[in-house]
Amino acid sequence: MARRTGRRPGNPDTREAILTSAREAFAERGFDGASIRTIAAGAGVDPALVHHYFGAKNKLFMAVMNVPFDPDELLPQVLADGPDGVGERLVRTFLRVWDSPAGAAGVALLRSVISNEWTARLMREFVVTQILRRAMAGLDLPPAEAPLRTSLVASQLVGLAMARYLLRIEPLAGVPAEVAVVAIAPTVQRYLTGDLTDVFAAHPVPGAPAEVSTGTPPTA
Question: Membrane-spanning residues where (predicted)?
Fold first, then answer.
């Protein structure tokens, strides 16, 4: 009798096979480059089965990362009142998640990022594509500025998580969350929406507006 080919039956190993394939695809190709079809092929299943288990691709990515929060729930709250104060809302929401019982999973993930390059790639993709890039899109900023702004915000938030929760550098590790918000939010706000003309002029970014990328100050 010929061996049956095609979609693998729904068994306890199927979900893990999909996650393994997705983990490899996201690490190698990034979130945008990894298609559901490619992930399904790597797991030996039909693409419809991936949707059955995980839904949309971003939900599959979240399952791979095992993050203790859902950006789909938190980002609308951060962006609800527009650009003014978005840095404060972002930092406050970030700290609320990390200070909750679910934050332990985030600390474990940070430890893994330090020791595992694949996990570091996945974390980088997750932070950029699922949080910061989506936040930037909601602020209606020039697209050419988004990559640098995104990386600057990431440096603040990842650095905050490392210092407060993993390395536990005092007094930052022990101060109330609101103290950290007051100290850090203005910098995050500047990176998100502030005037970075001097930064772009000193360090041209591919795709940036001509008057910025050439270092020529904009005319009044």
Answer: none
